[in-house]
Amino acid sequence: MPMFLRKVMTGSMLANCYIIADEETKEAAIIDPGAEGEEILKVVRSNDLKVKYIINTHGHMDHIGANAKVKETTGAKILIHEDDRNLLSSPVKNLAIFWGRVTKSPPADRLLKDGETISLGHLEIEVIHTPGHTRGSICLLVDNRLFTGDTLMRNTIGRTDLPGASSTMLVQSIKERLLPLEDGIEVYPGHEEETTIGREKRNNPFLQE
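Now predict its structure.
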């Protein structure tokens, strides 16, 4: 099924926000609106999209910072894994306080669990729970595209020196839940450039042990 896809790099941490939509129905989801809410909404308006969901791959401030702006403007529902729900409203838990900020998001409208599907027009988004960077980190599989947040990135993995993180759990999540996917699956990470599952299998130094 044809899918609209745009990336907007947001905030001082250059987090990747992805706008995806079913090209036929124009139903859209915004994955990780971390900042630059108006820039994200420009893409929505210029392509006549109907934003149904805001989906957070996890609850850190650089991935949720524009939730409120986007929700207020579009009426979209906020979706996050149940284990990260408490990060949305707490600048301490979402780490904003450590950067001198007070980032808060409205509460989740829907709590996600591993294996469930989010329907977006004719598109089906599969939720894959990949704890490690945070307890409630998820990846989102849409056809041959995988949105990985801060779980898996090009040649690296997410930070595990933060509260609630575990390097053992993160590597286990990637090896058990992501690497079995087809090598050609395109990976769209929360920071830096795109990659593929096959490339990370071969080249990612954190996954070679």
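The mean pLDDT is 96.
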